[in-house]
Structures are given as structure tokens and as C-alpha cells.
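INFO  loader      accepted 1 record
INFO  loader      residues=435
INFO  predictor   begin
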Amino acid sequence: MTLLAPPEALDVTVQQRSLLTASTRLAAENRANTIAQYVEIHGPLDARALEAAAQHVIAQTDALRVRFVERDLVPRQEILPRLRWRLPVVDVSGASDPEAAAAEWADAEHRAPIRPGDSPLFSTALLRLGADHFRWYLRFLPMVMDAFSAGLLLHRVAEVYAAIRAGAEPGPNPFRPLKALHEELADYRASGQYAEDRAYWRRRLADAPAPVRLGSDRADAEATTGIGLQPPAPHRINAIAQAAGTAWPDLILAVVAAHVARERAAEVVTLTVPVSNRLTPLARSVPTYLANRYLLTVPVGPDTTFHHLLRRTAEDNRADVAHQRLPCEQVLADLGDRGTLYGGGDPSVNITPFHTELTLPGCTTAVHQHRRMGATGFDLFAAGAPDASGLRISLVMLAAPGDRHLVLAQEERLMRLLAWVVDHPNRPLREAGTP
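INFO  predictor   done
INFO  writer      dumping C-alpha cells
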């Protein structure tokens, strides 16, 4: 008789714990609790090779083999030795509008919750829209994988796919064990840097005002997405940022701060800024949920020029980023009762200064976010290349049913302000909107 060893079990991190609570609640309410993305593929894709590549990579990815359990009232994540799953092919090529049919299928799939105790904690399928047109759809519980990890996973699958198609070996597994990352996190918590980071955030937020909210606070409010916009003249955006000694992500932060200040007549704005939190070589080689967020406090006086605001925002942001490793949950706990004011994360600015494209032999690809789990109230997403080329901005807000027009109007006002500050960086912000 062969006795099977119990699966390896690890603690749930501070960042994962709050997501685990939210995912469990949403699953109990039979509501969507996953994040989803898809890879648009044009070309002669080999579906069997893609399935083999994905199975090979997921078998080597600890985070995608976990399940969440409770042991003695304490949440734990167990790493299963193997998973059984297939990559189904869903053919919508016969529909009158294959793209609409694919989107409808993905929307329906996304609405079905995945429970934290399930296995696997992801769902995937290959949608065939035409002879040489596919969408590889993948969704997972957010505490399993963050955006950085999803990028690691997709690029590794592309590498293995290329090797399979070439009849070559895929090469060694580049991913480190999840346990090694947990050991590194424990070392950080016992370090002087951890104590220094806690002291920094206590000082930084000692006098920070309550956040200014833009999303609806109605009980029936739901996450509502704008149309997504491409700002004009990205080369000008890049030039204005460089003139201030920084890059376009800081410019977007400054514009959002100015926009929120105008919308709510505020002179100090606190933004929530998500970060990948991958500060060590080990952290950059372990797919899992490690993302963090920090609070950026931005003074926005009406007589301030945008150039001055941008320089101040960039300076403060550089200081904050140096202490991004401390979990925001710990930052809020250290603030005591005041910490509850910032727990909602509104407004949030999520910046991705790179494009995600995969190299699949003979195919062209593009990676798209399909759905995000909920919204904090005002969530702005910006993605583009380091020189701002291809920059695209989208807005997700909490809005009452039937109020999408308010989200679109908010998006339009933000873009008008962006265009104005790029044209007039040295004029006072109170003049925004004037010729």
C-alpha cells in the first residue's frame, strides 16, 4: 500500500487574505469573483500544441495548483502535486457575428464564481472565431495571480509552444517555488527595512486628509466601464514628462490628481496606486499574488501650474515607491481608526508602462483585459510603451444602473484636462479649459 504525502501547505499572505475574504463572499452570493483576460491570435494556431504548452507550464507553476483551505480556523493554501484539466475549443465561427458571440460566451463564463476551495482555481478555453482567428481566454481568482504573474505565465506558455512546434525541448523551468518567496517575505518582516517602512508611512500619512470619492455610493451601484480612449499626441505627453525630469506614468498621476481636485473642489488629493511589488530577483520569478498598493498624497492648489504639480508629484511618488513593499493592509492598520477612511481605494490609478505581446510562430497576438473583479469607485487604467506610444486610458467607476453616461462624461472631462495641460503646462490649473 502506497501512502500519499499530504500537499505542501503555506500561510496566506496579508495581501491575499483580504482578497480571499472578498472572493468567498462573492462566491456565496453567486457573483463574479474572478479576473479575466484573453489573447487575440491571428494566424495558423496549433490548438493541441497550445494546450500541451499550457499544461506543461501550469504543472510547473505552484500558484495555479493551490487550493485554499481552513485549518484550525486559519486560512492556508495547499499546493497540489498535479491537476487534471483540458483546454476546450469553443467554435463560434458559425455565428453571424463571431466577435459578439465570443464576447457573450466570455461574459457568461465570467459570471460563474470560482470558490476558493475549488481546484483548479482558474478556467480557460480557446475560442475559434474563424479559420485563423482565435481568442485564448483565461480567468482566475485574483489572490492566485496578479497582472505581473499573468504576464510571466503567458510568455512562458508562448516559449514552450514555440519549442513544441519546433520539435525542441522547452528548456528549464524559470519559475522559483512559492515556498522560497514566502521565506523571503518572512525575512523582510523580521528586517530593519520593515520597521523603517512602517515608520515612513506613519509619518507620510499623519496629516493626510480623508480621500475624495468620485464613484456612486448607492447600494445598487455596479462597476461601469467607459469606452477607453487614446490620448492625442503621445509624443507631447512624453516630452512634457521629460521636461519635468520624469516619465509619462507620473504625468498621468498628476493629471488624475488635478481632475479629482477640480471635480470635488479639493486642494489635497489622496490617490491609491497599485504596484507589482517585485523588488527582488526572486520575487520577479515567482508567479503568485504579490501586488500591493500605496497611498500618494498630492497637494493641488488652483494657482499651481501643471509643470510644478508634475515635478512635485514625481518627487513624492519616487519617495513612496521606495517603501512600496510594506503591505497596504499593515499601513492602514498602523493608522488606527483613520485607516478605515482609506480602505476603499478610491480614486485608484493603475499604470502599466509596457505592452504585452506574445511571440507565437506564424501568428500575431495582443493581450486584452476582459473583466476585473469589482471596482473601488473610480479606477483609472493606463497602459502604453515607455515612450507613451500606444498609450490607452480606460475608466471603471461605480455607477447606478442606467448611469453609464455619467461615467462617459467623467472620462471625457478627464481627457479634456489631459489635452489642456499638455498644451499649457506652465499656466495655473485654475485656467484649465480656457484657450
